[in-house]
Amino acid sequence: QTRMQSLRPEPAARYRNVLEALWRIARTEGVWRPMRGMNITATGAGPAHALYFACYEKLKKTLSDVIHAGGNSHVANGAAGCVATLLHDAAMNPAEVVKQRMQMYNSPYQRVTDCVRAVWRNEGAGAFYRSYTTQLTMNIPFQAIHFMTYEFLQEQLNPHRQYNPGSHVVSGACAGAVAAAATTPLDVCKTLLNTQESLALSSNISGHITGMANAFRTVYQVGGVTAYFRGVQARVIYQMPSTAIAWSVYEFFKYILTKRQEERRAGK
């Protein structure tokens, strides 16, 4: 996804679709090359998702009771998702910066620690949060669409809101796909801010690209309107299994923990 969103890729890093990209990267750079950055992503994802779902569940219940006592409110679901995103992205943004820099074509970094040290030394600590406002600008609408779509589909597929693995997988995958496609232009800008892509910066653009407005102008200047949708296919393909797995795991542990609490109450 990171490479397909590149505004001015090297000739050897131009891909027509996701399958071609994976095949060529694996063939020319090694089978494990597409997995670069996975370790830092996994490290950041644990605490980020813990904050994310804990905040979402608490706020969803509180806001739903205020807006529609005893019922389910799509406004509450969207608002809870937005607030949860603030915490999630604060924990995840540095990991995302490192991951994307390691995934760029001809990345000079061999290890995560090399990348972290180089970014810190050359650009300062602020570089790890340079795209934070853009990340929020992207993820707040993403999560609002994501949560509202998921809860809407659950009402249709699982109206009694019981633990139903199939409905959680389908709802999660569809919600992720819709949200991913709708927010691709913002993701392209975020990728540019994270990577500070050298070929884009050399196109009559001086200094570091900072802020979403600057990134939007740069994307349009370099690639036109179509550049905002670079990598949309890869983004949807990535998000569908990701959100399906996340919701399935979340609903499973929610079911197990709720069941244990009910058993303890019954035992008393």
UniProtKB/TrEMBL annotation:
The keyword Transmembrane applies. InterPro entries: MCP_dom_sf, MCP_transmembrane. One of its GO terms (molecular function) is ferrous iron transmembrane transporter activity. Solcar repeats lie at residues 1-62, 72-156, 163-256. It is a multi-pass membrane protein. Mitochondrial iron transporter that mediates iron uptake. Probably required for heme synthesis of hemoproteins and Fe-S cluster assembly in non-erythroid cells. Belongs to the mitochondrial carrier (TC 2.A.29) family. This is MFRN2 protein. It comes from Corythaixoides concolor.
